Amino acid sequence: MNIIRVCEVDRDIKDEMSIIFVDGFYEWLHYFSKDKAKLYKTFAHMFNTEVFYTAIVDGNIAAISACTQNNIPSVKLKYSEFRKHLGLFMGSIAYVILKKEFEKKKYPFQMRENMAAIEFVATSVNYRGKGLATELLKSILDANSYDEYVLEVADTNTNAIKLYEKLGFKEFLRIPQKHSEKSGVNNLVYMKYVRNKGVEAERFDLRAAKKV
Question: Cβ distance 140 to 160 under 8 Å?
Fold first, then answer.
């Protein structure tokens, strides 16, 4: 297995990344189209290869994750791509909703200068259950020198929460979600990894959290 930043891969892998992304987040993306082929094409353009990492196994893109600071979006959406693949009506709706959620995302707490966000962690359906996401995240944590790392996960995604806890992430904030009966998500859970636990563990000021 080789773990590398996407911008350093010697070929364009955005199509492969999009398949992993759509399969990983289809539970939410299927509202815009149940046709995965259309969704694969819709999202293939959006990845910021400077902040995404990938795990490559036998030449195959097996897992992806972004590591970025708050002022650097991990994805950049193009309206023309949404309209082209999803049609004018649904493409417009998906673009407006997801641009706000993905590209202009505001975390409900103050992002510090030396803090990074882990986003869009997903593993190919062909490689799940092999610990690749764990190894990918370990590599990201080792490759960067941020003091703190934060991530967001749905409370219903218990497997992901267990993975993050195993890596040393701890929950520090939980935001109840509106319309949970439709989305199936009761709370968004925010977890934090502190590199120097002895010094930094209690530094995060929860009073900076914003009410949503």
Answer: no
Cα torsion 29, 140, 75, 128 to 10°: value is -20
83 with 140: CB under 8 angstroms? no
Residues 129-174 have pLDDT tens digits of 999 999 999 999 999 989 999 999 999 999 999 999 999 999 999 9
25-54 residues labelled b (16+ CB within 10 A) or e (exposed): eeeebeebbeeeebbbbbbbbbbbbebbbb
Tokens 């970025």 identify what position?
A: 68
State the pairing for strand pair 187-194/170-176.
antiparallel
pLDDT in tens, 86-112: 999 999 999 999 999 998 878 999 998
**pTM to 2 decimals?**
0.89
- Is 22 exposed, middle or buried (CB count within 10 Å of its CB: 0-12, 13-18, 19+)? buried
DSSP letter at 211 equals P
Residue 206 has pLDDT above 80, yes or no: no
Pairing, β 60-68 against β 52-57: antiparallel
